[in-house]
Amino acid sequence: MAVIGIESTAHTFGVGICEDGKIIANQKSMYQIKDKGMVPIKVAAHHSEKSSSVIKAALDEAGLNIEEIDAIGYSMGPGLGPCLAVGLRSAKRLALDNKIPLFPVNHAVAHIEVTKQRFGVADPLIVYVSGGNSQILGIEKSPFKHYHVYGETFDIGIGNMLDSFAREAGIVPSWGSEVAKVAAGGSYFEMPYTVKGMDFTFTGLLTFAVKSLALHPIKDVAYSLQETSFSMLCEASERAMLLTGKKNLIVCGGVAQSSRLKEMLEKMAKPHRRRVYVSPNELNADNGAMIAVVAESMFKSGQSFDIEKLDIKQRYRADSVEIRW
Ligand code: FE2
Fold first, then answer.
1. Cα 108 to averaged position of ligand 1 atoms, centre (Å)
2. Domains along the chain?
3. pTM over 0.90
4. Does residue 222 carry a pLDDT above 70?
């Protein structure tokens, strides 16, 4: 079966197609952030403008036409309201016009599942790190099968923390990946480190790093900020891994594109004889293919939804989703 997935939680309008679990198309258009970060209404206008052409590009890449599509998935949340609404509108139009069943997909679950299914990893511990989210999760079967959150950020996501630092430091474009470039060759100095059990916070660290710009070279601040925040994730993940006894570790989400984070998590996991799995960057960046993968699983598990009643959920937590497959 062939499934289209539509992603529009934040800066990316993405459309992917999978066929029997295999990704055969993954197209996107990304809103280019200017100096002040994301203005949701402007990002949504970008998504509206690009939606038809990205859907067409994905169908062309897959060599399919819409009549050959068996199901459609869309990102229900979490995300920015105006951006999610564009994805929902596009998905509903496509589903109703062509009489195709529609599936609401949790964006975090999609990031997890695409990596889990790619590597065939059973029951992993998951480090989900993106702009708006930073959580450590794993499957629990009670009271229903779901991704339980063992630990998470108490304030902002690590990606937004790094992007905010980039903006304050005048790094352009203001992405965490650019902070990593600036950090190359930097020297470490101590920064606030806050881990409580398996939870953590980033705002105090961000404030400290921004203030440090007046006292230290930018590359030292960027390096110390990255090392400190990644170390916090490593400590919390190691505790969760040993507590749950889970044998494999998946890192997913936008910040999983960081090679340094992967390196540090591998260093942490190796003495415990645990393996770390990370998907290629195009599957960790926001994309439509991961939405298609989960929609296919939902379809095959027998779920069905009334298209007219489907909506968006800006604060849609991964742990509220029942995993039926
Ligand atoms: Fe994401």
1. 7
2. 2-110+284-320 (3.30.420.40), 123-280 (3.30.420.40)
3. yes
4. yes
Surrounding residues of ion ligand 1, Cβ less than 5 A: 130, 286
Distance separating alpha carbons of residues 38 and 197, to the nearest angstrom: 32
Q: How confident is residue 4, by pLDDT bands cut at 50, 70 and 90?
A: very high
CA atoms in the 13 A half-sphere facing the CB of 254: 22
Plot region of 58 (φ>0 → left; ψ -120 to 50 → alpha; else → beta): alpha
Residue type, 16: G
Angle formed by the axes of helices 158-168 and 218-244, to 10°?
180
CA of 297 to the centre of ligand 1 (A): 19
- Cα–ligand 1 centroid distance for 170 (angstroms): 24
Task: Give the chain's radius of gyration (CA, Å).
Answer: 20
